[in-house]
Amino acid sequence: MDKDLKAATRRDRKAREDDGKNEEMVRRMVQGKGLGKAESEFQEEMLDWIDKIREGYGSSAIRRTVRSVDNTGARISGLPPFEEHPLVIDLYQNEMENLDAIAEELVTDSSIRKATKFAAGKVRPSPLGTTWPSRTAPATLNIKQLTTFPAQNFYLKLRRALLHPSCNPDVSWHNPGTVAEWELCASRKLDTLALLLKHHLAEDGRTPMAVEDDKVVVGPPRDVPQPGDLPCDKIVVFCAFPSSNVQLTTVSSLLSLRLCHA
Question: How far is CA 139 from CA 102, 115, 130, 133, 192, in A?
Fold first, then answer.
């Protein structure tokens, strides 16, 4: 399998180089626009191997979900049904500029060929030395701060920047003392999180929120009325990077939200 997938990856890379699609692919990936509809031999090869693996383990592998039942038809997990309410929103303009700068650095300071391989963890591009801008001031690049680091860290850098640019160690974080100071360097994700928490903590069983025209609003009423004997609402905020707890807890406190974290 590994041999076939590597061969397919090489063929894809060669095709992208011939078509000049590498730079476009990197920028789309960083900006959250997907990879487009480019044909991929790797994807086709991977799907073939997934079918082979499923067939090979079909008689012995057991996959259970929250809806799985036992021999009597009773749910195994005992967890109540869940609903997902994804909120797809645009970042603030200065955050998008920060992501563009990260993409530009990858494209210009590394070869395009290496840039398109960063997700596989096989290249060592170098990060930006940046000063996080206000909403009116652009980010600045400090060439002296450029250092090498594993490509896996480049992916993590993008992930951390989605919460707030200062979640990356090369961007300074200054604790805002007032809401006005926070608004000068706010992130869309933290602002939206605060909005959700305030909405659902105000009253139990509130209608989930939704996005309309890039604005977070109260969603449509539930189709089925909620029973009156439900327990109090509990909210769990999961942060993938413990190092980002400073931004999370500081902003929550500033916006009059108390979090118990572990």
Answer: 11, 22, 6, 5, 23
pLDDT in tens, 45-59: 888 998 888 888 877
**Strands annotated E in the chain:** 130-131, 140-141, 209-212, 215-218
Instruction: Output the CA torsion 119→93→247→144 (10° steps).
Output: 60
Asked, for residue 11, whether it belongs to a domain, the answer is yes
Alpha-helix residue ranges (DSSP H) falling in 58-134: 93-109, 112-115
Cα separation, 228 vs 231, whole angstroms: 9
- Give the start-end residues of each E strand in 151-228: 209-212, 215-218
Q: Is the pTM of this model over 0.90?
A: no
Residue 101 lies in a domain: no
Which token pair is 150?
Answer: 């594993």
Assigned domain for 134 exists: no
- Residue 41 sits in which domain range? 2-57
